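REQUEST FORM: STRUCTURE PREDICTION
Request ID: SP-0412
Submitted by: Lab K.M.
Chain count: 1
Length (residues): 245
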Amino acid sequence: MNKFKTSAIEILKREKKPLHYKEITRLALEAGILETEGATPEASMNSQIVTDIKNKKEASDFIRTAPGTFTINPDKKELRQNQKIKEKEQEEEKKIAVEGSFTGKAGEHLVCSELLFRGFNASIMSVDVGIDIAAVKENKFFGIQIKTAHKNRFNTYAFHVRSSSFERHNQGNIFYIFVLREGGKNNFLILPSSEVERKIKEGAIFSVNKQTGYALNIKIRDGKVYLGNMEHEMNYFLDNWSIIK
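STATUS: Completed
RESULT:
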């Protein structure tokens, strides 16, 4: 089952009441259980739930209680194996994956060009081993992990980092660059791995998905950047490329 449906099930079971798909999406993003780099997570959530109900009918995990509003199906029937349903689900999952792949790869190329303009000998890694870009400047090596997200309807940028990747590459020369995309404008929150580790300990970055990953919610309010809640102001790290040294 794809991440939109699994996160919707978790939220609806937790809340124990019907919710509009926009509210399901908001709660899933805030809880860090929905991983998406797409620009329209609410539309994707609605589409996934509606498609599940349409294809599986009484065997769906969901029922519609009002326009755009859903809850857990209390009388879920056993689903008979159906190749057409399986193919439709795979097609929907592929669409979501492709959208995220375009966004992620665009972010890597964007950051790589910014580094080149700043005198780094930078290149995108051919194989993803937790480092997206290798960069060298003045004979010093830097490993850079890139995460890209569009601003969602809640004026928040939602990111996920695999815990295994972070633990494997938590060193002094490793940096995380979070690309904050709004329309045609891009900003960059540039964090050394030591700062990421510190924010994990402070609770601004929290563990999700049975501790297999970390969730980050970045907000821009009144010209200031916050990580998690409003207690963690991060303006120093916004577009500050001089940190990489």
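NOTES: The two ends are 43 Å apart (CA to CA).
Reviewed by: T.R.
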